[in-house]
Amino acid sequence: MNTGDRIALLRESLGWTQEELALKLGITRAALSHYEKNRRNPDFETMTELANLFDVSIDYLVGRTSAVNGSPTKEIDQFADQLELSDDELLKKFQLSIDGRPLTSEETRRFIAFVRAERNMM
Questions:
Q1: CB 37 within 8 A of CB 95
Q2: Cα separation, 22 vs 105, whole angstroms
Q3: Please, what is the angle between helix 29-36 and helix 18-25, to 10°?
Q4: C-beta neighbour count of 11 within 10 angstroms
Q5: What is the pTM of this model?
Q6: Nearest-5° Cα angle at 59, 13 to 49
Q7: φ, ψ (nearest 5 deg) of residue 83
Q8: How far apart are CA 97 and CA 46, in angstroms?
Q9: Predicted pLDDT of residue 71
Q10: Exposure class string for 93-102: b at 16+ Cβ within 10 A, else e
């Protein structure tokens, strides 16, 4: 299933007409029709707005995943929550890098702390 098919399917699942969705996106109905018929691809801003309106990930819209919202399964969440990457041996085994440069142990710990803080805010 390609992007246009997914947009049309999601729109129809919400009972919206092309006119209604186009209005919400601030585009013409004709532009939306081109997206749904795969004649054109939405720009990044439109793709982001579509993902927000449909409460799905952009990865889902472009077909990179079949998971509608990109969220991991409960099993994956539980497994990830049980991992404790503060042990130096694990940090060495799962070396993280940004821009091709490995993170130090301290940077990795701060990254993990950031993710935990972000999760607590949800």
A1: no
A2: 48
A3: 110
A4: 21
A5: 0.57
A6: 60
A7: -70, 140
A8: 31
A9: 56
A10: eeeeeeeeee
